[in-house]
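Summary of Year 1 activities. Much of the first year was spent building the evaluation harness for sequence design. The harness presents a backbone, in tokenized form, and records the residue chosen at every position. We chose the following record to illustrate the format because it has been used consistently in internal testing since the harness was completed.
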């Protein structure tokens, strides 16, 4: 199923939100398609949130492997488009997806972040368009783009033309798998726009991205608590909840040390 962009109010940049999703995680296979909250998968949760908050097209970009048919099924059940592409060359998958849907500006979202914050996403899109940058991301005080961190509440925005340039400039497998690393690793060749994350996030060892079974257990419980306590919770209320839970923070700290990028 493919949506026509006539359905959406688009800027001249043709912005779309592209969710990167697959089932073939080495640490926890099928994590994004397992029931996470009331029989809803993480992919269901993310798509629902994005569709309710934004008028931009939402597209799920997965692999062309048979095992990822379930990803496409979830996308179509949620009435969003699905693009199937190269498993290993994720960079090319994104470029091909953007080309297919005539997208010029990509809001890249990872499907293993159930606590994705739509307020941060909204702000970063606005700042990216205002700045005219090739790449926009939140960053830590050390200027580390959040895609390399454990927070799991952010996205990043990148121009399709910049990803196409990376495809021309390098065939290094690392950069083909990690879509934007080459861009912020070669800042002299691109216009980079980095926004500082809120100070309250760096006060605690908070990990809200999902890599392992340990992450799954703690995030599943935390999500349920947040939904039932706050309903429309945001990252700040989540941090306020977590800072009182020493046990969860200790587990998160251990996982951060184990999976630091």
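For this record, the design step produced the sequence shown next.
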């Amino acid at each position: 199923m493919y949506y026509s962009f006539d359905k959406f109010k688009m800027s001249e940049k043709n912005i779309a939100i592209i969710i990167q999703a697959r089932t073939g995680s080495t640490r926890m296979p099928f994590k994004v398609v397992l029931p996470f909250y009331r029989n809803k998968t993480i992919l269901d949760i993310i798509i629902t949130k994005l569709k309710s908050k934004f008028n931009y097209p939402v597209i799920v970009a997965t692999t062309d492997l048979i095992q990822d048919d379930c990803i496409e099924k979830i996308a179509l059940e949620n009435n969003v488009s699905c693009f199937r592409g190269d498993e290993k060359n994720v960079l090319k998958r994104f470029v091909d997806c953007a080309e297919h849907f005539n997208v010029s500006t990509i809001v890249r979202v990872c499907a293993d972040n159930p606590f994705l914050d739509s307020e941060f996403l909204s702000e970063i899109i606005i700042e990216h368009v205002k700045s005219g940058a090739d790449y926009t991301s939140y960053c830590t005080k050390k200027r580390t783009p959040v895609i390399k961190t454990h927070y799991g509440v952010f996205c990043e925005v990148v121009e399709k033309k910049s990803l196409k340039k990376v495809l021309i400039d390098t065939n290094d497998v690392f950069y083909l798998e990690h879509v934007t690393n080459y861009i912020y690793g070669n800042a002299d060749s691109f216009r980079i726009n980095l926004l500082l994350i809120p100070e309250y996030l760096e006060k605690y060892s908070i990990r809200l991205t999902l890599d392992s079974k340990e992450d799954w257990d703690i995030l599943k419980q935390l999500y349920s608590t947040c939904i039932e306590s706050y309903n429309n919770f945001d990252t700040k209320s989540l941090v306020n909840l977590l800072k009182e839970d020493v046990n969860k923070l200790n587990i998160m700290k251990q996982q951060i040390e184990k999976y630091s990028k």
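The chain has two domains: 5-199, 202-259. Quantitative recovery figures across the full test set are reported in Table 2.
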